Amino acid sequence: MGVAAEEAVRAAAPEDLPAIVALAEALRGELTPMRGGRLWAVREARPGPADVAYGALLVDPEVCAVVGTLDGVVVGFGVATVEALADGGKLGVVTELFVDPEARAVGVGETMLEGLVAFCTREGCVGIDAFALPGHRAAKNFFEESGFTARAIVMHHVLPAGDPEPEKPQPGKPYGETQPGDPRASAGT
Q: Measured between alpha carbons, how far is residue 51 from residues 15, 126, 144 in Å?
């Protein structure tokens, strides 16, 4: 009978940066090919070199960054921030929460999320938002099992690539109708 690995969560420290960068790259690699992932990678994912982006988070007093470990080895990381609301309230936002696929289903993610929720509670947040791509059933289920519910659904419409200026509605012309000579007419639109 094997000995269970010791799971722990702690505040991330500068010496954790190489492990966090590797996990952030794995997160990007996992999400980018999913539906909505390409746009996530260029909009919601942290821009710039990962070592610079995450290195800055580790020393930002306004951010909660945690790592999850198994037997002292970093296998996951999480980040939460606080946003000011128009009414003066505060909203906690879990911007990243990732566990190495080989270390999932043993409680590391749940324990990291508990730490991020505790941070947002201490900060006086009225609630916490977290992000899951459409179709990422495991992430959706994880957050729902942790008490999260959907409060919004982002709708997206893909436009033809390379169309520098989407067609604007014209008086007397049905929207979406192309004219002879319009390059979109030959593109099947």
A: 12, 31, 31
Structural domains present in the chain:
7-158 (3.40.630.30), 159-189 (no CATH)
CB 19 within 8 A of CB 58: no
96-110 per-residue burial string, b: 16 or more CB within 10 A, e: under 16: bbbbbeebeeeebbb
Q: Rounded distance, CA 14 to CA 19, Å?
A: 10
Contact 75, 108 (CB under 8 A): yes
Tell me the residue ranges of DSSP E strands in the chain: 7-11, 64-70, 73-84, 90-99, 127-130
pLDDT (tens digit per residue) in 78-111: 999 999 999 999 999 999 999 999 998 888 999 9
The pTM (predicted TM-score) of the whole model is 0.80
